[in-house]
Amino acid sequence: MEEIEQVAQSAGNWAADLLQTEIYNGKSLADYLTFDALITLTTSIVGALVIILLGIIVSGFIGRRIKRMAERHKSLDDTLFAFLGNIARYTILGFTALFVLNTFGVQTTSIIALIGAAGLAVGLELQGTLSNVAAGVMIIFFRPLKLGDFVDVDGVMGTVKNITLNYTEIADLGNVKVVVPNSEVWGNRIKNYSSYPTRRAEWTFGVGYGANLAKAEEVIRDTIMADERAHADPEPFFQVNNLGSSSVDFLVRVWCDTDAYFQFQADMKRKVKEALDAADVNIPFPTRTLVHENPVVNLSDRQADKSDAKQDIAAE
Q1: Cα 24 to the center of its chain, rounded Å
Q2: What are the chain's domains?
């Protein structure tokens, strides 16, 4: 019985010591196990759950509202407002987490400092990825390209399908998906063929040296300007630009809508060729004259000489 009493006494002493052990902010476990402490803890938990619920609802609502602004106003960029919506949403969720920690009496200053130090360490390890993110932010804010633009980026030509913080997705001319890291997009020259509403189409048409140049120019001008896609303003350019080895070349420059550029340029090549043919204007093709140092001997004459030689030999 004495041994049992000793064990019970030891357990009681251990429990008493445990209850008096300091846990947080100078308070022991016994302080937290009081009725008032349990009420306070329950209140903190309920308050934290309410804060989390409100944070999720408010962050989702504000994020969606910002994104829908671009949908209602066509002049606003979808990618930019989607990015801003996500930034607003995660910012609110971050503050929600801090409020929850404050509800339990946790000092958030040290946690913020710890997160900052961890962020610095992670940033040093992920320099390449973070450079893509930084470039993605620059692309989204300065908008050198946007969804649907036809661009040439680092030698890749195609239509922009998606822009994220890490990469830009382009569908090339063969409708093949090409993913370009944002650091390469931002760090290289970008040709955006869709930025301006109009473009200048350019052609070179050659006619023969014996052709009537005034007539040829009139046929070219009338054919192109009769197309509804050709703009009269700015003024079109039709001039003889080069005297080639076998042709007189006209340089033609006419403005058109950007959306119609490629088809307009292709159609005019065929229409101008057909119009020149109908007007009987000669369209030359390159020719080459060969001059031999030794005279060319007719094959029949050479065979006749061989037969005469054979007859002379036979006669001898």
Answers
A1: 52
A2: 35-125 (1.10.287.1260), 145-192 (2.30.30.60), 196-316 (3.30.70.100)
